[in-house]
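step 4 of 6: structure.
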Amino acid sequence: MKKFKYSIALLGLLFITASCEKDNYDEPDSFLSGTIMYNGEPVRVGYNEVGFELWQPGFGLLTPIGVAIDQDGSYSARLYDGDYKLKFIPGQGPFRIPEVNAQQGDTILVNLRGDQQLDIEVEPYYMIRNVQFSQSGGTVSASCSLEQIITGDDERTIERITLYLNDGQFVSDNGDANVARGDADISDLSSVSVSLGVPQLNPPRDYVYARIGVKIAGVEDMLYSQVEELSL
Amino acid sequence: MKKYLYTAITMALLATGCTNDEEFLDREPTNILTEEQVFSDPSVTLSVLANLYDRYYDFGWIQDWWTLSDFNIAFWSELGRYSAFQNSTYDYGAWGTWDYAYIREINLFIERCEPATELDEADKQRFLAEARFLRASYYFELVKRMGGVPLILEAQEYDFSGDASYLRQPRETEAAIYDFVISEAEAIKDMLPSNSGTKSRATKGAALAMEARAALYAGSIAKYGANTPQVSLPGNEVGIPVDKANGYYTKALNAAQQIINGEAGSYALYQKKPDLAENFASIFYDKIENPEVIFVEDYKLQSGKVHNFTIVNQPRFGAEEEEGGRINPSLQFVQSFETLDGVYQPLAATDGSGNPVYYENVGDIFEGRDARLSGTVILPGSSFKGRQVDIFAGYQMPDGSVVSGDSRGQQKEVGNLGNVQVVGFDGPIDGLEFTAQTGFYIRKFQDPKAGSGQRGVQSDVYQMRYRYAEVLLNAAEAAFELGNTSTAADYLNQVRSRAGITTPLTAGDVDFDRIAHERYVELAFEGLHFFDLKRWRIAHIVLDGVPVDENTVSDDIGSATRRETQPLAIWPYKVYEPGSANDGKFIYKTRKLSRVTGADRFQFGNYYSRIGDNVISNNPLIVRNPNQ
């Protein structure tokens, strides 16, 4: 009887361990990461606004893997090794994607074998230059200048330039989540400045995060400067 | 002996039992109807058709109250729905529909009904026309939400060969689908009865109303689509060439004028009651000889087909169930109603120099406005089912502080008044669900019958699909776009004078903002505003992700592109100032609710809903919608 019990237990154990082996795949273990760049400088975008899609053909039904771009222009995705097609969603982002070649269009082919660093070159409508923030007496001042990158048929005008303040590090055009916002005078794009009083923070903090956003006419996603922490 | 008898009986049974084996097993099924049975009896055919009617797609549906009140025309006073005011973007898949099973079943119905011989010819023609009406209605719904779609007009059959790729159809152009809707309406209008008494089945009036709306939408997409070249596809699956605009506007005007001229039956504006606000509210629940209603989904008490709109939206105080008050119209919506002499005027909470204006009664601030305001919104001081709503936010003390409560009808010490009620039984209390958090409840579609607010009874108010006032406004817009502003003014004035506005518009007054404004206030909560924003290509301007500023909320009241990213509130306070003339009067304060933290952002990719990856995987001929 005892033997029988023992063999049942053994059988059970075998069954459990055997099924473990069969059921599980290895987790994806390769990082694809990088930054969207223009001439070696990162192009910064809004929080959770801009992204691209990775398509992996050859597995039947197609569904893209969405990859979001962080505030500082970086991205990362943990993937299985394989051959992917990287494609920005048309019309998104404050930039154009240069064409790789006529046949491929702007699709970037990624052959992922282990971790890979891939910086993506894009062509923004503008670049924000000479960004400076300062704080004195509860007022944040910011200045910058804009360099127009795309000119000619596709050039776009500026709709507004806004200074955002937030008590957290995510500073984008995200509704009332920001603590304050103020539009700058955009008559002279070579020297833009704006200042904004810091409202009462709740709970009180001795720092605030600031960021300049540029809304380009007819382009949905805004272009941003870096996020700067200012102590109050 | 007995043995022989049994044998004989068995033999006899076997012999008789066997003779008709085939027939014995081949029985008529008792639980399904065969094709011949369905299409030989008009009442059975009609019941199949009733199923197709029941699956009609409405964008704003009275059974789903939130679909009627989206896009910040109202705040949703329900705990589980605050998140709609805390996020900013809309999913690209939102509002999508792709129900080709429905289209297939309509196609099957048409294919099977056509050869039927037992049906009376007149019945058959009507059934066929109704099915085609439903099919065109759904294609219209598809093109509004998805752009051009595959146009399937026959029930496709799969041959089980293992390869279904021959069934794939590419998307038609957006214009082609609108053309289909318009041509179907033209083709069936004379096959349908011309009877304004038929409301819940397709009539000539319904077909023409659909044609007018479809042609108007197509015309405006052609015209205003030029403003957003990003929202188009190279194959015109999305986007209509601008040179087609006038052709569509002409068709829209013609179709609408056929209804207005009485060619489809005697439709007219509903003008039965002397109280104009009551009159406006009655359009939706008066079921006896209502000349305004063209096509509806009908409900009936004690039939099982009822809805709970009144239950979920009735004023909370004295409600027949322990709920209600969900739709709270926004301050911006309320103040967009003109005064009776046709002037835009902000709600006068403060005078020119910023001091509060004192009102004798709580509702006085809303006096003298368009009757549609109190026909659409339950205002503080007004009544529903004979009971006055109790909306006031607290006591304004002389030192500037406010005494208020956080439960309905709470009592507190106020100065020398002793223990008194400091907040209304209907609120407003910030964050307390079912109270009038913006200061208002909805009145449109509320059923004034006793019992309509009880779960065991519910309501039978119409789900409105087409009504005469919309036909007039469609005609006005089409006429305006064709440059005929005096005709447009005439149609607008008919709708406006029904609402009690005494100063008629002249031809010179009619501009785009006027047309947009009239549709906004007349057709609010009827599921049409969203498509107006889309087809005029102003949704990304109105919903631009920038929070509404309390200080500028009263600017540009009549502007179509006014920002509408958040609903704001305006709360009445009782003044406590003993010895002063203002004691016991009411003042109003504009405020932003604490639960409203996001500001809606409508992206270019939201103009046309995303077609699912499963659809595209199965049919690679389908192109994606722009910007997504």
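step 5 of 6: annotate
 - Residues 315-445+567-594 of chain B form one domain.
 - The first strand of chain B starts at residue 74 and ends at 76.
step 6 of 6: archive
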